[in-house]
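Entry:
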Amino acid sequence: MIYILIIILIISIVAVVMMSSLIIGLIRTGGVPFISTNKKDFDEICRAVELKSGEIIYDLGCGKANFLIRAAKKFGANGRGYELALWPYVWAQIGIWFNDVDVEVYMKDFFKINLSEADVVFCYLFPEVMAKLESKFEKELKSGARLVSYGFKLPNRKPDKEVITNDDNVEIGRIYIYRY
């Protein structure tokens, strides 16, 4: 009986820590929730952006880093992710360790990092956040860098390429590629 109570206590503590970290993450990100990119689109995103082995790909708001892990394993990219919520950050570290890939995830605000080393930047962020980032991309991305936005366009720039991965004509599943 005592073992069952200990297990219930451990599960409860984990659940409270997980929920607290997600709530704190929402507050720290200004209300941007943790939503994963559809895994079926990972390879399509990498092909659409013409990701090459050895390129450095940044994922802004990387969550559990599933996209970066896939890009490193299948395409040979070097991934750098930025995540503010504790639970997805910890999950990312575990995933990186299990997959033994060249991916680093930082618990940092992506508004405060320099993007100049990135060959590719991946975003799955709400339109309001994309609007705030647009001038940062213009200033910091090097010539030839590519920006991939999953689901949401930049408000003031026309995409160089658009890939539709669904057939129901909704934004989610659309991949917008911008070349700088």
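The mean pLDDT is 87.
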